[in-house]
Write a structure and sequence with these properties.
The complex is a heterodimer of chains A (292) and B (275).
Chain A lengths: L1 E9 L4 E10 L4 E5 L6 H9 L6 E6 L2 E2 L10 E4 L11 H10 L5 H14 L15 H13 L5 E5 L7 H18 L2 E6 L2 H7 L2 E6 L2 E6 L1 H6 L4 H6 L3 E12 L2 E6 L4 E5 L12 E7 L4 E3 L3
Chain B lengths: L2 H4 L2 H22 L2 E2 L5 E2 L5 H6 L2 H34 L2 H12 L6 H12 L4 H9 L5 H5 L2 H26 L3 H8 L4 H12 L1 H17 L2 H7 L6 H10 L4 H24 L6
Helix pairs in contact in B: 2-15, 4-9, 4-12, 6-13, 9-12, 9-13, 10-11, 12-15, 14-15
């Protein structure tokens, strides 16, 4: 469990973060959501150790880690623009962190191969980062962080550099990867859709304050503060029956016979046809078809 | 031939007339003999080259190579630090740094070197202060020494190192440093495994820009080093201006140019380095 106690940060003249209290349990996918300049990236960098907090404590499983430099913390980060070392190959990039620990060459090679298989990129081992697409670079960046077996994976706007189609694809992959590894992910994003699709819980931030922490569903149903209700645009809840599912796109029949298609935030093994579903509809997100 | 093939022509002509042809002349002269009264006699010999590699003169070449290498090394270390600071400074401070780096070029080299000479000279502020404070010193050793030569060389050629490095640092992605920290690398390791490899081209370019003129430099050792410090550049000027031994001076020049061309090609042959 990762606990943040009263974390504050002030730059020379202004306050960037005010008294952040948060605890994130193991295996949770937690998103920090907010407009740019709200302090969410600063908070992530403080957790990573790349910046120091002006006040407060960070505890991992009850032990303080805030006095440790970034090098020593059992966290790894996926940077916004990936920050892959351009002079190294994909394999060398991934091996960088391992070489600093006491692993033999064989162990390093085995671990690199394993993590490359995990992100489905084994054939890109000897490529240079400049030859990779955005989505491929993103996978390498995730692999480079994961190979060090961090207790928490930190992601700074991980999908913002990708185009819309790739972003949706990588959202699914990230979520699947997180479930498979059972690892704690903390993800910073300004994209509500992304936060809602990925997270177990979302912390909404504004002007350096953590305004609300709740599950995606709670945020939709009862936006806690004025700010969050503005940030999460007006939403309606519609109840209906699941009539069709293909991949992650579900078709729901409403009481009047209208069909709505949309993504579902339920693990695949729990989805049954005919089950009752609640569809949260926002103007920009879902579209419906008129029934006959 | 297309138009773009002709565009290279002026440069090519310039190169042929003003660089290649004079070099050929120098090569021819280096194979001639010195006349009794300092003229050139066209009787072919390799005698001049034998003299270049004789113990006396080979020592001068070795000293010059050492000084040029030392100048390059010092400029490299200082250049990395200075250009790093320049590239990470705030906007207005950065402009000031760039101006401060380029400003010395507005003053003639001779005047700049003379200023150093005056500063440490008999009537200069350094000796005056030392005298007033009562520190004993040797006025002759203070006015002209090897350290002053090195100081003059580094201050003169440092901008040639800093400017390419500054350009490279400006393009450098500093989040790579954070990524390396996050992966557990310490400061020295980050410097050698992440920062320097990404500046490789600029480091080689800057080193060549400093090393090449350093090797042929004659003015700075002449003014700041005194009679005892004979360097290769001085040796060449002396042959032409004082000893009137043009063939030997030409042989010295040919050896220096071949050395430099060899260095440039050796650097270019290294993977990933061009220009």
């Amino acid at each position: 469990m990762l606990e943040l106690l009263n974390i504050g940060k002030s730059f020379s003249s202004q306050t960037a973060l005010k008294g952040i209290n948060l605890s994130i349990s193991e295996g949770e996918f937690f998103s920090l959501l907010g407009p740019s300049g709200c302090g969410k990236t600063t908070l992530l960098r403080i957790i990573a150790g790349l910046e120091s907090a002006s006040s407060g404590q960070i505890l991992l499983n009850g032990k303080r880690v805030d006095h440790m430099p970034a090098q020593k913390r059992p966290f790894n980060m996926v940077f916004q623009k990936y920050a892959l070392f351009p002079h190294f190959t994909v394999a060398q990039n991934i091996a960088y962190g391992l070489k600093l620990k006491s692993f033999s060459q064989d162990q390093i090679e085995a671990k690199v191969a394993e993590v490359l298989a995990l992100v489905d990129m084994p054939e890109f081992k000897d490529r240079k980062p400049e030859t990779l697409s955005g989505g491929q670079s993103q996978r390498v960046a995730v692999a480079r962080a994961l190979v060090n077996e961090p207790q928490v994976l930190l992601l700074d706007e991980p999908l913002s550099a990708l185009d819309q189609r790739m972003r949706e694809h990588m959202q699914k992959e990230l979520r699947a990867l997180q479930r498979k590894l059972g690892l704690t992910f903390i993800c910073v994003t300004h994209d509500q859709e992304e936060a809602l699709a990925l997270s177990d819980r979302i912390g909404i931030m504004n002007h350096g304050v953590l305004e609300q922490v709740s599950s995606p569903r709670e945020i939709f149903e009862s936006p806690g503060t004025i700010f969050s209700s503005q940030f999460i645009e007006s939403t309606s809840c519609l109840r209906g029956e699941l009539v069709e599912i293909s991949q992650d796109l579900a078709t729901i029949r409403l009481g009047d016979g209208s069909l709505i298609k949309g993504k579902v935030n339920i693990p695949a093994d729990q989805i049954r046809l005919g089950m009752n579903l609640e569809a949260y509809v926002r103007k920009a997100m879902a579209f419906g078809e008129r029934g006959k | 031939m297309k138009l773009r093939d002709y565009l290279l022509l002026p440069t090519l002509l310039w190169f042929l007339v003003f660089i290649f042809a004079p070099f050929l002349i120098v090569v021819f002269v280096s194979l001639a003999t010195r006349g009794t009264y300092g003229g050139i006699e066209w009787s072919w010999t390799l005698q001049n080259y034998a003299r270049v590699f004789s113990a006396t003169y080979a020592g001068v070449l070795w000293e010059s190579l050492k000084l040029a290498a030392l100048t390059t090394g010092l400029s490299l270390v200082l250049g990395i630090l200075i250009s790093w600071e320049m590239a990470t400074a705030r906007g207005s401070v950065r402009h000031f740094y760039v101006m401060a780096m380029v400003l010395p070029f507005l003053t003639n080299l001779v005047i700049r070197i003379y200023a150093i000479r005056v500063f440490v000279g008999a009537e200069g502020p350094l000796q005056g202060t030392l005298h007033n404070v009562g520190v004993p010193f040797d006025p002759f050793a203070l006015t002209q020494n090897k350290f002053l030569v090195l100081y003059g060389m580094v201050t003169t050629y440092l901008p040639f190192m800093v400017l390419p490095l500054y350009g490279a640092f400006e393009k450098f992605d500093f989040s790579l440093i954070e990524a390396a920290q996050d992966l557990g690398a310490g400061s020295w390791r980050i410097l050698f495994s992440v920062i320097l490899p990404n500046l490789k081209k600029a480091l080689w370019a800057g080193s060549l820009l400093v090393f090449i003129p350093s090797l042929g430099e004659f003015l700075i050792p002449d003014l700041l080093g005194g009679a005892k410090s004979m360097l290769y550049g001085n040796l060449i000027t002396e042959q032409f201006l004082k000893s009137r031994d043009w063939p030997f001076g030409s042989a010295l020049s040919v050896v220096m140019m071949v050395t430099l061309i060899w260095v440039v090609f050796a650097v270019q042959k290294r993977k990933g380095v061009s220009g």
